[in-house]
Amino acid sequence: MKKISGIQKLYIVVIVLYFVTFIFNIDLVKISLFNFLDLYLKIFKILILVFFVMFITNLFLHSNKAKKEFKASKGIKSWIFAILLWILIWWPPYALFPILKEFKTKWVSNSLLAVFLYNRNVKIPYIPISILYFGLSFTIILSLYIILFSIFNWIIIGKLVKEDMKN
Fold it and tell me: What is the average pLDDT across 140-146?
């Protein structure tokens, strides 16, 4: 017999609770389902946009392209590229650590890596839920603050860590 996983147990408990609630209070189940559908419809359009951006990012932006851009860009262009690249790449960080190690050893300074890593907190897949919970203006302001503080991070790391600037 196959062992039931934790998530399957959770689904079973939720279904049983909905069934029991349906038996005793059908109106509560209707309200719950309508609220779920309303929430789903609110974020569905944004999710389609997020999936489209993720698809385009994966289609055109890969590690070889990033390496080429970092090699070619100098000065402010490399900083803008670092900010935008980490916002657009939605992969988990452990998948990017080998690439970051190569960037560090060949082309990129510590302060540019600090900018790169700090902007990890602006994630396109989390924008819909952030807008839903906190509102559009808060999400935009928070994202702009994260980007701004990544630049402060660049300045601080640049002063704390003396290095040969590769960019």
Answer: 91
CA 14 to chain centroid, in Å, comes to 29
- Six-digit token string for 7: 């998530």
CA distance 93 to 145: 21
> Per residue in 62-94, pLDDT tens?
656 666 665 555 667 777 777 777 777 766 767
SS3 163: coil
**How far apart, in whole angstroms, are the C-alpha atoms of residue 145 and residue 161?**
24
Is this structure's pTM higher than 0.70?
no
CA distances from 134 to 1, 91, 117, 122, 123 (A): 45, 24, 24, 15, 15
Angle at 71 between CA 65 and CA 76, to 5 degrees: 100
Q: Could you tell me if 90 and 54 are in contact, meaning their C-beta atoms sit under 8 angstroms apart?
A: yes
Amino acid at 135: G
Please give the Cα distance from 118 to 115 (Å, whole number).
5
Return the exposure string of 131-163: e unless at least 16 CB atoms fall within 10 Å of the residue's CB, then b. beeeeeeebeeebeebbeebbebbeebbeeeee
- pLDDT at 116 exceeding the cut of 70: yes
